[in-house]
Write a structure and sequence with these properties.
- This protein has 281 residues and is α/β, with parallel strands linked by helices.
- It folds into two domains: 133 residues, Rossmann fold; 140 residues, NAD(P)-binding Rossmann-like Domain (Rossmann fold, 3-Layer(aba) Sandwich).
- The protein has ten helices and twelve strands.
- Strand 11, helix 8 and strand 12 form a beta-alpha-beta unit.
- The two termini are 33 Å apart.
Length: 281
């Protein structure tokens, strides 16, 4: 069997997903292609999706700005994607198109690989900075892992409140302004930056000041271009441990590949390779 896979989004010319999945195909001993299906927002999204679905695709990834828009063009979604309200992986099987979300488990797997100790204390104090789709998926993943104390800092309170609704009666979530989070930063064991602030070309930007950061904290940034964002650079200067965003990219791809092929390919050894590929861009 030859797999036909791809990526839908805009813009995606710089994506390394084709490289990642080509490595997975080689490791799995499978034949296949992973192609870019860039859809300009000015084009008819529905028409372009129907063209893709009428082709011989076994599945595809979905990235910004279409993780929600794709939902209306699917036959069904799994429970995770339904709860998160976003799809990043689509599987075509037995004539049906099913939406999944592997972003949350990609992040959790990455964090667990690098900082397993944080998972030993479910009362660890966690701060999410930002309240977009990525924050929603990560919050969902942290809930599934049993964490109870997860605060959200964001400019728009209503967006953060919508994420907090995923929690139950045992979840302790405070919603706060970014300025308030800066003052309380020293109280958190794990701080996760979930926005695109600091991404190339705006590499000097940071969303909050880390002056009050505690040196025993873990600071995570989902941005991976550049690999070491200004946010992570400042965190390391404060003595904190840092967690890189490209590892989330790698492990969400690992789970997507497993959904398509039923093969889970070891990805640990690809972290450094992916890092070097990204640093060369």
């Amino acid at each position: 069997m030859k797999y036909e896979l791809g990526l839908i989004g805009y813009p995606i010319k710089q994506s390394l997903s084709p490289w990642i999945h080509q490595q997975f195909l080689i490791k799995a001993g499978l034949e296949g292609n992973y192609s870019m299906q860039e859809i300009n927002p000015d084009e008819s999204f529905g028409e372009e999706i129907e063209k893709i679905k009428s082709s011989q695709f076994d599945g595809f990834n979905v990235t910004v700005p279409y993780k929600k828009r794709i939902i209306n063009h699917l036959d069904q979604m799994d429970e995770d994607a339904q709860t998160i309200g976003a799809v990043n992986t689509v599987v075509h099987r037995d004539g049906e198109w099913t939406g999944h979300n592997t972003d949350w488990i990609g992040y959790i797997t990455s964090l667990k690989r690098h900082y397993p100790s944080i998972f030993q204390n479910k009362m660890s104090s966690i701060l999410l900075v930002g309240a977009g789709g990525a924050a929603r998926g990560i919050y969902y993943g942290l809930l599934k892992e049993g964490f109870i104390r997860i605060d959200i800092a964001n400019r728009t309170q209503s967006s953060a409140e919508a994420i907090a609704e995923l929690g139950d009666t045992t979840t302790q979530t405070s919603i706060m302004a970014l300025e308030s989070a800066e003052k309380r930063l020293g109280t958190y064991d794990l701080i996760i930056q979930t926005t695109n602030i600091g991404m190339k070309p705006n590499v000097s930007d940071t969303i909050i000041s880390l002056d009050q950061l505690h040196e025993n904290s873990i600071v995570s940034d989902i941005v991976y271009q550049p690999i070491k964002t200004e946010f992570l650079h400042q965190a390391s200067q404060q003595g904190a441990s840092i967690h890189y965003g490209h590892t989330m990219l790698l492990y969400q791809a690992q789970y997507a590949f497993e959904l398509w092929t039923s093969k889970k390919i070891p990805a640990d050894d690809m972290e450094e390779l992916l890092k070097h590929k990204l640093e060369g861009r």
